[in-house]
Amino acid sequence: MDGIMATTESTEGKRGPQRIGAPAAMRHAAGQLAQLLGCEPGAVSALKRTDEGWSADVEVVEIERVPDTASVMASYRVKLDEHGELLEYERIRRYARGQIDR
Hints:
By secondary structure, the protein is α+β, with helices and mostly antiparallel strands. The protein has a single domain (15-96), classed as SHC Adaptor Protein (2-Layer Sandwich), CATH 3.30.505. The chain has one helix and six strands. The strands form two sheets. Strands 3-4-5-6 form a four-stranded antiparallel sheet. It has a two-stranded antiparallel ribbon with strand order 1-2. The longest helix has 16 residues, at 22-37.
């Protein structure tokens, strides 16, 4: 995702990257993970601010099946810096699309 950082004018007149807010963090987490995995993200199921920036849980379809309730889903934890750049990601869970948490 080129050009995802915004710039602001500081009190000294220098331009620098701006911290992103929650809506932008959600878009950046889903978009950058999709680029790395080559698949479309389903949803961002969790988002929280961290000392480094943001942590988001992103749901993706890993294996498409028919019917779609048999598709294999995965939940990835994505960590972004304060400007929205991906720092790391890891798969934290795999499950059938039709599965309900208890």
